[in-house]
Amino acid sequence: MARSCGAGRFAKRRGKQIQVRRWLTPPFGACDNISTRAVYAQAPPAAASLRFTANPGSMRRSSGHEKLDVPFAVPCTHRLRFTGDVLGDDQQTLADLLEPSEGRAAKVQFWLDDFVAQAQPDLKQRIVQFMANYKGRVTQAGNVQLVAGGEAIKNDIHVLERMLKVFNHHDLDRRSYVVVIGGGAVLDAVGFAVQIAHRGLRLVRLPTTTLAQADSGIGVKSGVNLFGKKNWLGAFGVPWGVVNDAALLSTLSDRDFRCGFAEAVKVALLKDPQLLTQLHEQASRIARREMSAALPIIRASAVWHLKHITQGGDPFEMLEARPLDYGHWSAHKLEALSDYTLRHGEAVAIGVAIDTVYSSLVHGLHAADADRVLDCLTDLGFALDHPLLADPQTLFAGMEEFRQHLGGRLTLTMLRGVGDPIDVHEVDDAKLREAIQAVRKRARRTSPAAGGDRCDRSPTR
Q1: Which DSSP string do the residues of 400-429 spell out, in sequence order?
Q2: Are strands 73-83 and 32-41 parallel, antiparallel or unpaired?
Q3: pLDDT band at 37 (very low <50, low <70, confident <90, very high)
Q4: Positive or negative, the Cα torsion across 9, 13, 17, 23?
Q5: Any residues with CB less than 8 A from the CB of 354 and at least 6 apart, and which?
Q6: I want to staple 191 with a disulfide (CB 3.0 to 4.6 A). Which of 50, 185, 222, 285 is the partner?
């Protein structure tokens, strides 16, 4: 049976959504600064001037009917920085992002993931020292605010209300800065509060997980969960700046450290065959947390996400597809069904595995490439089986939720080859079940059940 929400098999590609004005890629170093200026447009702008269109009778006073279609563009700059210790030896990187306004010191409020504060107890004092070092350029709006880390912050709507009350109490305005230090869930929730306060404060993200540094921290989306659905309440907005600081990754658990590399595998499959080869070759070193292997992968994934956002990748999801959400229709559902005991990266690893095997069964992806992807995910330490996969029908409900998030017909991204994604509107249920069973069968030979630390595995060949 084919699962479909509209006519036609593949999505018809439309005109580009983004017109890039400038793209700078500096050499890799201890501190890299990337600023990308783009024009976000509903449609390609007119060559010389705005076009007003009217129907033939629009100029007759008696009709009272007029139609104006005016494409317009909004310039945005996405600022991404790479450094090794932004609250230590490289404080200038953060200070440069906090621009004074009209001769007044920049008003700054810090929000800190409680998990990170516990793991790095000196972090609050380092923030205080940073503010003291740049007194006159920045002024702090209240104490450092602590929020619960993990998915809990996105599941409690009262936390959102509390954040807004704090913003209001300290009179934050559209030129005030909120610096949020935490994992992806904290960045999502605080970022959403920032987007809806005064229709947008200035958000500076300091991601503290590999997943957020490689993926979500770079993006233009924020949100919280509602009605048991992932990111049901959310907004789009370009962050004022993002600082990927390697020092903030040092206290991650092994489980959380590996999670970001599921997103790196995803973006490599969509965009960069060479990156996938590099990941495959370096997977065991990354699993051992060798930073000389891990950091270049994180950086490459982050830059690919930045390019997607700024170079025509439909960052505001105006079209039918969500190409950077490859493997996510099942991942989001697995997270919710597991009551979020599955980490996002763990669920993405399973979802990527399923869609990769399905692509090899239906869309022409070479079986050897699919096998290489499963090898890579397993070598990184991911378990690709979970008891929830025993009931594919329940999992399939995630497709409809995925469709509802964008509206229109079902559109999923699959692969014809590595670096060759396609949009599809139909899914063969039988083949998808076959793909799930193939992933589970292989996982039973190579790894434990998902959601825990990985055990050593015997060779599969």
Answers
A1: HHHHHHH-SS--EEEEEETTEEEEESEEEH
A2: antiparallel
A3: low
A4: positive
A5: 327, 330, 432, 435, 436, 439
A6: 222
| Nearest residue to 321 (alpha-carbon basis) of 422, 428, 232, 429 | 422
Q: In the numeric block, which tokens belong to residue 242? A: 């993002």
The Cα 346–Cα 214 span in angstroms is 15
Whole-angstrom distance, CA of residue 461 vs CA of residue 458: 9
Query: What pLDDT score does 39 carry?
Result: 53
The pLDDT value recorded for residue 8 is 38
State the DSSP string of 172-187.
--TT-EEEEEE-HHHH
CA distance 167 to 150: 22
Residue 450 confidence (pLDDT) above 60: no
The span from the CA of 142 to the CA of 138, in Å, is 13
Domain 24-41+75-249, CATH among 3.40.250.10, 3.40.50.720, 3.10.350.10, 3.40.50.1970? 3.40.50.1970
Greatest CA separation for the chain: 81
Neighbour tally for 453: CB within 10 Å:
11
Instruction: Outline where DSSP puts E strands in 127-268.
Output: 138-140, 145-147, 177-182, 202-207, 221-226, 229-236, 241-245
What residue segments make up the domains of the chain, in order of their start? Answer: 2-12+255-446, 24-41+75-249
Distances from the Cα of 196 to the Cα of 160, 235, 385, 408, angstroms: 10, 8, 39, 26
Half-sphere exposure of 150 (CA within 13 A, CB side): 12
Q: Which of 130, 355, 177, 361 has its CA nearest to residue 265?
A: 355
C-alpha distances in Å from residue 452, one per residue of 151, 255, 342, 353, 383 = 17, 8, 9, 18, 8
d(CA 272, CA 278): 10
Domain 2-12+255-446 has CATH 3.30.70.100: no
Q: What is the per-residue pLDDT across 407-439, written as a single tens digit (0 to 9) for each?
A: 778 889 999 999 999 999 999 999 999 999 999
> What is d(CA 289, CA 437) in angstroms, rounded to the nearest whole number?
31
Find the helix or strand (DSSP H, E) in which 36 lies: strand 32-41
d(CA 130, CA 112): 15
Report the distance separating Cα 10 and Cα 323, nearest Å. 13
Contact 97, 164 (CB under 8 A): no
pLDDT of residue 299: 97
